[in-house]
Each structure stands twice: as structure tokens, then as C-alpha cells.
């Protein structure tokens, strides 16, 4: 998904490109943390996973025993797509609401000063 967002980024205008890039980077946190917590080099692992995904076009994960990329379906790892989709949607909504509250608080503070 991060790769798709990076490809989508040039079609977005202005500062919104930074938001698309930040969201793509945030999605890469999961494999980075898994690799780091398993004792593997996170940059090397991430590069391997991205290369495997580009070659196979399938969903690729990290084998936490070896640190090598694995095609999840071939290893019998099945994630619930609906749960993952809802999780990503919820994270986006929560982040948007936090930014909105921050904007409202800044507007309130500036009206108190003036």
C-alpha cells in the first residue's frame, strides 16, 4: 500500500503531497518494528521485502525467524482484510480529528490575544 501511495503522490498538488508521503512512511513502520524487535537489520529487511513485493506482486511479509521476506499466503498466514481496511480508515479519521482539534485550539488562542 505504501508503494501505491508513493506512485499516487505526484498526482496530488501542493502541500498535500507531504501528507501522502507521511502516510506512506507511516505504513512502513509495521515491518520496520517487526524486523527490529526480531533482532534483524530493519533497513536491510525493508529493502528485501519491497524487492520481493515488486518481483512477485503478492502480499509479502517478514519471516520473524529468518528476517527474510515471505509470501504470506504460501505460508498460511491469512489476515482479515476487512479488519485491516477498517483499521487504516480509523487511523486516518483519528489523525484528521486530532489535526482539526489542534487548529480549533490555535484559532481560540489567537482570538484571546487579539
TrEMBL record:
Keywords: ATP-binding, Chaperone, Nucleotide-binding. The keyword Signal does not apply. InterPro entries: Chaperone_TCP-1, Cpn60/GroEL/TCP-1, GROEL-like_equatorial_sf. One of its GO terms (molecular function) is ATP-dependent protein folding chaperone. The keyword Transmembrane does not apply. This is T-complex protein 1 subunit zeta-like. The gene is LOC106023159.
Amino acid at each position: 500500500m505504501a508503494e501505491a501511495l508513493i506512485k499516487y503522490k505526484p498526482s496530488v498538488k501542493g502541500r498535500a503531497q507531504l501528507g501522502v508521503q507521511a502516510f506512506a512512511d507511516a505504513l512502513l513502520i509495521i515491518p520496520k518494528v517487526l524486523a527490529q524487535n526480531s533482532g534483524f537489520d530493519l533497513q536491510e529487511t525493508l529493502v528485501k521485502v519491497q524487492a520481493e513485493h515488486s518481483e512477485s506482486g503478492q502480499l509479502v511479509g517478514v519471516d520473524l525467524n529468518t528476517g527474510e521476506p515471505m509470501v504470506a499466503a504460501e505460508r498460511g498466514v491469512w489476515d482479515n482484510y476487512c479488519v485491516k481496511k477498517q483499521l487504516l480508515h480509523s487511523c486516518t479519521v483519528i489523525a484528521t480529528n486530532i489535526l482539526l482539534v489542534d487548529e480549533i485550539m490555535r484559532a481560540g488562542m489567537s482570538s484571546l490575544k487579539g
